[in-house]
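Severity: low
Component: inverse-folding endpoint
Summary: output formatting inconsistent between runs
Steps to reproduce: submit the following structure tokens with default settings.
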């Protein structure tokens, strides 16, 4: 009997130690958190820093969040030109999702209007708006999680395989939804929807504000409006977390529909729900 209770105690101790050893990962924004959760599954705890509606470009962390990050196994973020404030942590391993994305799939941010027209302003970090780009980084994400937590390798690989199947189905569903509006022309307020538009073959004639805080001048607005009329742009796509002033003026001047899209999502919204919501809004506007 004594041996039985001793064995039971050791079993419970082993189980509780395993729970305490569960990796804790911090991620900056909701959509990246959803991707990470799909691969981590029950093997690891994933916590998102930014609340819904907050802009990753301007967010200020709370002191309590600073403490949480310092005790995490790793901090996952988007890119230096998306959530660069995550770089203030030098005492934790920082992992960029953009670095996990194959180079061949990274889209450039190009200035198409004004004095910087034709200039490349870096790589677009909003890859998650294309489910197949997300699928392409899964092998590197699995390798990264396995390096951080070698004992979880089989769990990570199994979760990634299931997620890949779901991404393929999601991509097929959105393709079918947007088939009627292919090659319609739109204008982007910011470089937040390029991956989605390219994947589903909807043409963007340019970006109003390719870099945060760089609103067009009156002269540049006139050029953009003229270009929209010439190209017969049917919609101006705006970012839910950014200013609508220049996009609204352009839409009113050209008769295009102003469409507010949300690349960051709401609390509790799954990754497929995020993409399908935006696809539906775009379909309704372009029809």
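Observed output (run 2 of 3):
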């Amino acid at each position: 009997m004594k041996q039985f209770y001793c064995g039971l105690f050791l079993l419970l101790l082993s189980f509780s130690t395993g729970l305490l050893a569960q990796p804790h990962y911090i991620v900056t924004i909701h959509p990246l958190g959803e991707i990470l959760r799909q691969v981590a599954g029950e093997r690891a705890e994933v916590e998102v820093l930014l609340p819904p509606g907050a802009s990753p470009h301007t967010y200020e962390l709370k002191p309590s969040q600073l403490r949480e990050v310092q005790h995490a196994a790793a901090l996952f973020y988007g890119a230096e030109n998306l959530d660069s404030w995550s770089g203030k942590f030098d005492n934790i391993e920082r992992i960029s999702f953009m670095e996990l994305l194959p180079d061949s799939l990274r889209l450039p941010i190009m200035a198409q209007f004004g004095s910087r027209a034709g200039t490349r302003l870096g790589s677009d970090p909003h890859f998650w708006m294309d489910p197949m780009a997300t699928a392409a980084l899964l092998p590197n994400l699995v390798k990264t999680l396995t390096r951080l937590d070698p004992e979880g390798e089989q769990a990570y690989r199994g979760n990634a395989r299931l997620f890949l199947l779901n991404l393929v189905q999601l991509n097929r569903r959105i393709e079918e939804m947007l088939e009627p509006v292919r090659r319609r022309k739109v204008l982007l307020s910011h470089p937040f929807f390029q991956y989605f538009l390219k994947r589903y073959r909807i043409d963007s004639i340019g970006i109003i504000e390719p870099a945060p805080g760089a609103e067009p001048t009156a002269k540049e607005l006139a050029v953009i409006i003229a270009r929209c009329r010439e190209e017969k742009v049917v919609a101006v796509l705006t970012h839910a977390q950014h200013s609508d002033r220049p996009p609204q003026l352009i839409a009113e001047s050209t008769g295009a529909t102003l469409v507010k899209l949300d690349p960051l999502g709401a609390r509790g919204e799954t990754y497929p729900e995020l993409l399908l919501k935006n696809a539906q809004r775009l379909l309704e506007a372009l029809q």
